[in-house]
Amino acid sequence: MGSLNPPALPAVDFSEPNLKPGSQGWGSVKFQVRKALEDYGCFEATFNKIPIDLRKAIFKGLEELFDLPLPTKLRNISKKPFHGYVGQYPQVPLFESLGIDDANIPEKIDSVTNLFWPEGNPSFSTTMQSFAEQLSELDQIVRRMIVESLGLDKYLEEHMNSTNYLLRAMKYKGPKTTETEVGLSSHTDKNMVTILYQNQVVGLEVETKNGEWITVKPSEDSFIIMIGDSLNAWLNGRLHSPYHRVMMSGNEARYSVGLFSVPKAGYTIKAPEELIDEEHPLLFKPFDHVEFLSFYYSEEGQRVQSALKAYCGV
Ligand SMILES: O=C(O)CCC(=O)C(=O)O
Ligand SMILES: [Fe+2]
């Protein structure tokens, strides 16, 4: 028998103006973050720092970006899989995506903008810069709360310095049929933490530990925060990294944009000894994220159920 209420993600409110480490509000939000990430690996964060004008500019920018001719979009090439232009895949024909590496560095956003619009597009560039800046603040708040709540304060600096930011824009065309179609296949993220923001078209689904799919319906003010495999491994499995997918129906396009904190090349992801004991034996051998990604995109990596377990599971 199904439950009466459709399952929903936990919601955590980050809009308190004085949300500072050590304050009472901080302690209570930290507790909710930890609980949500243990149980679901994901939650909806309310964070009212994105003014309406910025919100509108983001979606206008995403439309302009994906409306560019394909050869222009293909100028965005990255050495790392899934960081440049991705699209025109027969398995996921509705999906297209464009990434900007090191999105916390304004010049990087400028240089990718200039690739697409050689005559410049300052409105696009400044919109994406301020969006990345606001969201990287949220990423750092959440990661600090996680580190503190697991008693790993002595690793805080190392952990915060272990990542870069990838900003990635996604478009999913409406399938324009009565059927629901796969926009993006089920997967776990491979990075540390993902923050997603989307227009009003629903489509993201997150799987619970019981195998139920939650349809995510964020408000205009909310972001979806999700744990990736790298953080799951670093924390020796203490937090869950959920499977999720995008399912599309109807005519309207879904636009989303994600800020992904991604381990730097050369940084070894190795669980702190404080998280390993008899009750919690080591789950994953130390690994490098770039090498893990190469495995994930190999034939074997695509075939196995969990690339993380197959790659470095103990
Ligand atoms: O579009 C979305 O909301 C989800 C995208 C996603 O799962 C991903 O890029 O890894
Ligand atoms: Fe994802």
TrEMBL record:
Residue span(s) of domain Fe2OG dioxygenase: 162-263
Pfam family, any one: DIOX_N
Keywords: Dioxygenase, Iron, Metal-binding, Oxidoreductase
Family named by the database record: Belongs to the iron/ascorbate-dependent oxidoreductase family.
The protein's role, per its UniProt record: Probable 2-oxoglutarate-dependent dioxygenase that may be involved in glucosinolates biosynthesis. May play a role in the production of aliphatic glucosinolates.
SUPFAM superfamilies reported in the protein's UniProt record: Clavaminate synthase-like (SSF51197)
GO molecular function: dioxygenase activity; metal ion binding
Source taxon at top rank: Eukaryota
Name this protein carries in UniProt: Fe2OG dioxygenase domain-containing protein
InterPro entries found in the cross-reference section: DIOX_N, IPNS-like_FE2OG_OXY, IPNS-like_sf, Iron_ascorbate_oxido_reductase, Oxoglu/Fe-dep_dioxygenase_dom
